[in-house]
Amino acid sequence: MAAVPNSPHARDIASLIHPMTNLVKHEKDGPIILDEGKGVWVKDIEGNEYIEGMAGLWCTALGFNNERLIDAAVAQMRKLPTYHTFFHRSNMPVIELAEKLLTMTPVPMARVWFANSGSEANDHMVKFVWYYNNALGRPNKKKIIARIGGYHGIAVSSGSLTGLPAMHKGFDLPIPNILHTGSAHYYHEGRPDESEEQFATRRAEELDQLILAEGPDTVAAFIAEPVMGAGGAIIPPRTYFQKIQAVLAKHDVLMVADEVITGFFRTGNTFACDTYAIRPDIMCIAKQLSSAYMPISAVIMNEKVFGPIREFSNTNGMLGTGFTYGGHPVSAAVALETMKIYEETDIGAHVRKVAPLAQERLRALGEHPLVGDASGVGLIGSVELVKDKATKQNFDPSVANFLADACTRRGVMLRACAGIRVAFCPPLIIEPEEIDMLFDRWQLALDDTLEHVRENGLM
Ligand SMILES: Cc1ncc(COP(=O)(O)O)c(C=O)c1O
């Protein structure tokens, strides 16, 4: 579609660089310009309405017009619109938020560090892990193991943790000292004769072997998303985290839970660590922390990690790191209000009430000729597109992209992941009628895609 000169579309093309976008294709296709939002719905400037089946980028838990969050931002803007937390300065919203978060964690935690995005949180997690091991006089214990298919952001070290080739290509990533082990994608990587439990055992053994091969005195931490997001909304196979954590404990390797997507009731529990019995040393959170109304993220660490960091800052004269906007009072006030709303509305109970319908409708998509696997937990899940259900052979990524675009045309925003799956992750406030609408539209888009695949002889 050629953009009309001087139209908003043409102005976008002439002025913006879009992330995770083919910049040449963008010049031809142009943007969808979103203009308004209400509940789980968003509207573009041409008046087309969509169910936001991805909560934006897995984040707008409370929908697109929550007045309490808006009021919290405005009130804080009026009182103290900005301040930093360097050099012993603080503000009340950030203190209250840190205190609140420490009451919510799945295991006892000691301190909270604030940043502005998931990428920054994971990047600082790396710095803290290195600092911690330097504090303990273990300068060689620095390697961090992430997983193939994992997504932890796009900054230099968090982008290195990310295990998706498209995010390394051309950027000279990953940096040294970041390793990747196999993912928890049982449907795709389990062997034909292997149970979920056996697959989990194999993955844990592979991790053990990797740590032994590298030398346990060189491996500092392991990071995982409890439910892998951008890698395809992949739920872990039974017993996976239990077995992984046993390996980590054996080698004194820290467990880092990237709860950036899964934190705050996405799986029905406060954290997905609760859902999968993960006992992290460090947690990274963002997104639903403020329902994405303001940029804010955090690294939360236990006493084992914080204690040596505290002492080392004294040895070094200070903790020589920080962001101008880390602990920003407006972001903190909005996040604090978000926590209050989650609690007062018992959002977890709502998720647990509506999730069975969403998961039932998701599983029903598994009957579609194009779908090999349809799985999820709480209000997150995905389908995997296959040419042949018996061999599980995937299409090339153009088919998942076609499906995501077909969903958009049918009025639901979903997302192609890792070239083979299409995910949903709607606002947590979604109601049963909206879940039905979302899946009705997804089903129609799958039919459109089947027609496309057949017409083009792709199957
Ligand atoms: C699990 C996970 N970690 C980290 C990030 C990075 O967050 P951000 O985009 O805020 O930098 C994301 C973003 O989607 C994510 O899904």
- Structural class of the secondary elements? alpha/beta
Mean pLDDT: 97
Largest sheet: 7 strands, mixed
Q: How many extended strands?
A: 16
Range of helix content: 40-55%
Radius of gyration: 22 Å
Strand content: 15-25%
SS summary, helix count = 16
Distinct ligands, ions and cofactors found in the model: pyridoxal-5'-phosphate
Straight-line N-to-C gap? 28 Å
Q: State the low-pLDDT regions, or none.
A: none
Major sheet strand order: 4-10-9-8-7-5-6
The coarse silhouette is: globular
Short description:
The chain has 459 residues and is of the alpha/beta class. It has 16 helices and 16 strands.
Question: What do you see in this structure?
Answer:
With 459 residues, this protein is of the alpha/beta class. It contains 16 helices and 16 strands. The protein has helices spanning 8-15, 23-29, 55-58, 67-79, 92-104, 118-135, 156-161, 186-189, 196-214, 240-250, 272-275, 303-316, 329-344, 347-365, 397-410, 432-455; strands at residues 34-38, 41-44, 49-52, 111-115, 143-147, 178-181, 219-224, 254-258, 282-285, 297-301, 371-377, 380-388, 393-394, 412-413, 415-417, 421-424. The strands form three sheets. A seven-stranded mixed beta sheet has the order 4-10-9-8-7-5-6, with helices on both faces. Helix 11 links the parallel strand 8 and strand 9 (282-285). Helix 5 crosses helix 13 (329-344), helix 9 (196-214) packs parallel to helix 10 (240-250) and helix 14 (347-365) packs parallel to helix 16 (432-455). The longest helix has 24 residues, at 432-455. Bound molecules: pyridoxal-5'-phosphate.
